[in-house]
Amino acid sequence: MGLERLVIVRHGESVGNEAASAAESAGDEVIDLPFRDADTPLSATGEAQARALGAALPSHGVGDEAAVWTSTYRRAAHTGRLSLEAAGMAGAPRLDERLRDRELGVLDHLTSHGVSARYEAEAERRAHLGKFYYRPPGGESWADVALRLRSFLADAKTAPATTGVVFAHEAVVHLIRYVLEDWDEHRVLSAALEEPAPNASVTVLEADPRPGAPWRAVVVGDVSHLAQHGVATTMHTGRRDVDPRLDEIDPGRPEDAEEESRAVAD
Hints:
Mean pLDDT: 89
CATH class: Alpha Beta
Largest sheet: 6 strands, mixed
Radius of gyration: 17 Å
Distance between the termini: 35 Å
Number of strands: 6
CATH superfamily: Phosphoglycerate mutase-like
Structural class: alpha/beta
Shape: globular
Order of helices and strands: EHHEHEHHHEHHEEHH
């Protein structure tokens, strides 16, 4: 037995998402959050999104027999717990630090304005290297995150289940697709721009039965369950971190503006 289907969920809206978007809009340099990134909780909307998601998990083939993992970060782990409870599923997801959000190092909690004002040389280095390979001091590049996800996925494929569920972050959603769908740098960055993962969205990948063949996406960024339950859809995406045409400088994170702004934040 091995995984044949992987359901990837981005966490519900966090208070970091809200604070990052507000700071960016106001032109502030720093996101006013009292939490370290790993401890940032869901907003009230994020909790409602997680419950609505849980009611939809069975429609994506998720049942008690599924293997379930979550990022160790509070916003993702809480999304997982609330969703499983709403789905009536027994057990708790397994925490795995390899699913955590991308680390921004010295750029953490800075907006794009803050990065430009305080780390001009880093902004220039990021522009030269590009999003995929740029690693802020003390932080990670997208390539670094992909490396730890390769390790996670190698273990996950041997799980005693045919369906797996991952609760994580926007960058993790895109980079799991990068690994399993056998993408290159340009394809994953295009997907991050053109196929964003809203809060509490579902992306489903299925294995190809041919040995060595890439997996394929059968659902991408689905949030129809939110509308069905009258819950707001929120994006808080790090698009400007992906496409330099949208913003002269980007911080490289909070992954979803988690990725882009934490420094704009998830």
